[in-house]
From TrEMBL:
It comes from Owenia fusiformis (Polychaete worm). The lineage of its organism: Eukaryota, Metazoa, Spiralia, Lophotrochozoa, Annelida. This is Uncharacterized protein. InterPro entries: EF-hand-dom_pair (IPR011992), EF_Hand_1_Ca_BS (IPR018247), EF_hand_dom (IPR002048). GO terms for molecular function: calcium ion binding.
Amino acid sequence: MSNRLQSTILLMENRKKQMKDIPRIWFRKKATLIFALDIDKDGILSYEDAMTVVDRIIKSANLKGAASDNIIQFFRKFMTGYDQANPGIYEKTWEVQLLEVWSTLNSEVVSERLKALHGKLFQTLDFNSDGFIHFSEYIHWWKALGLDPSLARLQFDYMDTDHDGRITEKEFVDAALDYEYNCDNDTKNRFYGPLVDF
């Protein structure tokens, strides 16, 4: 057996072991996120996928001016920044991306970045800049990900913890962080849609 083949086999065995160490619910949630954003379904979350989501949101919500510009700038900045922080990440398969995310998840720096990222995403999806996301705004995000619109209300209501019919930035960010960190098998949080199963 060649050295290259042995190295490949060892790498694959190591990945299998690493994946077994990841809580199944977390793995399912992150796979759901990646599959939702992997618009062309090639197994790689890419800049092009993100820009397709942007285009879908803009068209679905009929955004113009600042609201349209905010969506474009948010996703451009996120995707290029993520690539700069993780060189070559968009060429890696979703399994490798998951392992890399899992290995850094408990970092305080990563936690703060996730909080800031989702705060900015909230501001971007608050199309009318009134400080709230209403269901009429939220549904465009859900549709852009290609998710079943009939399930959007369940997630919206999950995030709307005070049941006032609108989501605050705190509610949105709390739900996003819960999605990132909560490994409870009974969680009802479906931030990126119904969980994929393996």
